Amino acid sequence: MPLPLELQRFLKAHHDTQVLSVLVEGASADPSVRRHWRIEVLRGIADARAALFHDAPPDRVRFDQCVARLMRHLPSGSTRLFTHGWAGFASADGDEYVEVLTRDVEPSVTWTVGPRILPYLAAHDESVALVALGDRHRLLAYQLSRGALTDLEGIESAATSMPGTHMGGAPRVGFHVGTRGATQADAADRAAREAWHRHVTASVQRITQLAGDNLAIVIGGASETVSLLADGLPDDLSTRVALAPALQVHASRAEIVRVAGAAVGSLEAARQRALLRQVEEASWSRGHGALGAEAVARALEVGAVDRLLVGRAFAHQHRATAELLAQRTLLDGGEVEVAVPAVSAAVDEGAWGVAARLRFARSPARALQTA
Length: 371
Fold this sequence. Notes:
CATH class of the largest domain: Alpha Beta
CATH architecture of the largest domain: 2-Layer Sandwich
Distance between the termini: 24 Å
Largest sheet: 5 strands, mixed
Number of strands: 13
Helix content: 40-55%
Order of helices and strands: HEHHEEEHEEEHEHEHEHEHHEHEH
Number of helices: 12
Oligomer: single chain
Strand order of the largest sheet: 7-6-5-8-9
């Protein structure tokens, strides 16, 4: 996934200098453990400082200066930290980048050449989704971004009007509201069906317009309406659509965020599985794929990596190698993502921990040697 522009700038400027990377776990609402995050941070800082015991004094001074700069951004005392967590990077030459996260993060403190980027990517969420909730009478639309909902313009269907009594009183002989024997109930049903059809058609058009070229789409509401809306969308949107019929139009905003967030997560897992299949097939056929650290490193030597997918076990067990591959990919203008838990095992076991989609093909011989 693309990094925020400011973090891209930080990485390009400091990939070859010492950087303090601090990832802080979100605080619990339980007052008894409210300061746990701070204890973990201080313990991590102490461990990183102890590892510098044999380093030159100037290195330890730069480390302490980075610690002081980042700690200024964190709450003091027993103040509750952010819900999900926090990330901070401080370079030895005085630059820094901090961000409040929208996903849970594994806490860590590291002092390395260049920022430790993979744990950040695992917790970084820049996904934006359109949430559409519909029934027979209305379409509610929201944008879900970084765990927050923004109201968008939806649709209210026009009320269906039916003929009433003649001039407000009893009808005269010969006056009727039906045609060729149709009852008023039949006409009302037909008018309601036509109004619903118009409403669904307008709602599909509105969803297509709001989704644009890249937004994930979560559709909820009355089950029959959900099915009609999904069936009416263009086929090229199908891979971006998740259905959530349990999410009704009267759902609270908190429930919408929770359920829609889970639906977007399922779409993300499906997208990563498709990417992994694409890379696996390409690594043996056209050569536009590389599996395993060695093959990916060779592709990076010629600037061929377009997108890198890293398994969580590989990132943990081979941290230095994984970070180097990720940083090289980002510096070359590629994108890096950490496999979501539902996909990570397939990457770690089937792709030897890391898979790369390439911008251009390697030679067939090279593809066979490194697959």
